[in-house]
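Shape is hard to put into words, and the shape of a protein is harder than most. The fold becomes a row of whole numbers, each drawn from a learned catalogue of backbone shapes. The outcome of that step, for a single protein, is printed below.
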Amino acid sequence: MRILLFGGFLGSGKTTIIRAFIDAILTGELGNVAIIENEIGEVGIDDILLRDGSVKITPIFGGCVCCEITGSLISAVDEIYRQVSPDWLIIELTGVAELGNVKELLETYTDIGLEAAAIAVVDGSRWQRLQIIGDFIREQILGCDLIILNKTDLCPDPALIATGLAELIGQDEIVLMADGRDRIADSMEILRDLFQLQDDSGESHGPDGFDHGDEDDDHDHDDDHDHDAHDHDHDERMVGAYSVGFTIQPGAAADKVALVSQLADLFTEIGDLVSRDGIVFGHVKGVLTESEDSFVRFSLTTAGKPDVLVSAAWDASGGNGSATIKLTMNVNSMNHTETEIADLLVPCLKRFGPLFVMQD
């Protein structure tokens, strides 16, 4: 069983990239996949994007596996190995977990032979302004095997950021990803490089096809990272996590197009409340679900309108008729406690009045 660990700050785009890796594995006929999804909050949002009939998803809620619920992760990995025995296990860590720490925990406390790689996802669009918590970001990605610099289409000089990252942690394997690139093809090349897989010609491939930026190949890579640095005090990086769920009763939504627009405005308002200097030091996300295949996902990391992903099965014509629609939200913020987030959300949610019924 090969293990892919994905880490990176809240809202860096881990789930979207993981979806590309799943597609690369399945379309490339590299085997079957299981996923462990670790959420800080009490409900799952991202698993709806990762669902596939051939993929088993195991959620771990309510804390960070690298420091609060380590036993849950070890148990989940062991159970999946013994009961499912997938060819690939993908683990998506919370946006505050430390990759090197989790990889070390797996190698130390699991009694199965592991072939694991740790991939850090860095948000290029927020990189400069996230330097206010630069030490924390550095601790997150130390010990990774490869960095994916994501959202490079939204930052002015990706190569400069890549060079800075290389100097910051001594890691020269940096892959640039952006909207418009073939993420599945990039993911396949990464897998071939990390695990020395062969393509159809029987030849092993490295990452020569990647866009690596202009990093200096002569800088030193410190293979002897001080793992004592991972013995962090979790209080130094507490993240307020507030989860809430609502049900929209059948027939209550007269216009599903207007509903999505209203919710986009709601997420914008919440993002403004928990942002600092236009940046959400966390992640505001939610999903509107009519069925397993019919959903709308909202994701916001900067002030302004959220990214909205509408599934192909979502029928926006008319209202919700006899269908029950659920809205699930997670708000994570390094600037606020759970109670403070809840207090901020109350006036935002009030304007929806009787449309929403809070889930038990």
Q: What stands out?
A: The radius of gyration is 20 Å. The chain is about 30% helix and 25% strand. The chain has two domains: 2-235, 239-358.
